[in-house]
Amino acid sequence: MPTRALHGTSAEDRVADRRQRLVEAALDVVGERGVADFTMTAVCRAAGLTERYFYENFARREDLLVALFDRSAAASLADAAAAADAAPHDLERRTRAAIAAITDTLVADPRAARLYREAVGHRELAGRRRDTSAAFAELLARLVVDAYPDLPRDDLLLTTTVLTAGVVEAVGSWLDGRLDTDLDRLLTRCARLVAAAVDQLRTDAIPSPEAP
Fold it and tell me: Is 117 helix (H, G, I), strand (E, B) or coil?
């Protein structure tokens, strides 16, 4: 059955447009009020929509927060992967490009930065935040494999997971003003630590000479 159009727009398109407006408004509300004070009423007001249209797309305010976080995280990870793939084929420079892409996004949009920082204290967003960190660890692992295809994989994901935790903490501390350094130094140090850890993995993979 054909979908009835209004002024040339289908019902599905109108629903999608309202959902997009709600998600965009949600980011504004998080930026202004934070995750803890995030309400459906504030989002509807910012979007210029009634609660009826909120429930057309989301059962709870938490569902909107999750959708917002997932969208932001997916875009950041895609940007990181694209930046790494466009960088020279060198592990340190590709790692730096990936971290810089995510950091640049957070610097450019304080709303997204606040969402990511405050997700750690939210029951449902905390799991999404962990998933995002795990995905970035997997991206780092891919960059390592691209640079060193013959490197044993035994401790690779363990190493990149530990490194990701350190990078996330360092970037978060810098964004909060708790880490007194400039962005260039932060990115360089993070990238060099990744390269150094991988060098250690390569060294560990070299068989030890047999004892006499």
Answer: helix
Dig out the tokens for 138 from the structure. Answer: 């997997």
Could you tell me the residue range of the domain that residue 25 belongs to? 1-59
Query: What tokens appear for 90 in the block?
Result: 């060198």
Give pLDDT tens digits for 157-193: 999 999 999 999 999 999 989 999 999 999 999 999 9
| Residue 163 and residue 143 in contact, taking contact as beta carbons nearer than 8 Å | no
Can you give the CATH number for the domain in which 18 is found?
1.10.10.60
Q: Taken in order 161, 163, 169, 175, is the CA torsion positive or negative?
A: negative
- Alpha carbon distance 103, 113 (integer Å): 9
Span 3-26, mean pLDDT? 82
DSSP string, 90-114: -HHHHHHHHHHHHHHHHHH-HHHHH
> How many distinct structural domains can be found in the chain?
2
Q: How far apart are CA 24 and CA 201, in angstroms?
A: 43
For residues 134 and 47, membership in a common domain is answered with no
Final residue in a domain of this structure, among 40, 59, 78: 59
Q: For tokens 């962005």, name the residue.
A: 183
Last residue of a domain, one of 59, 80, 101: 59
Q: Cα(210)–Cα(207) distance, rounded to whole angstroms? A: 9
In this structure, what DSSP letter does residue 119 have? G
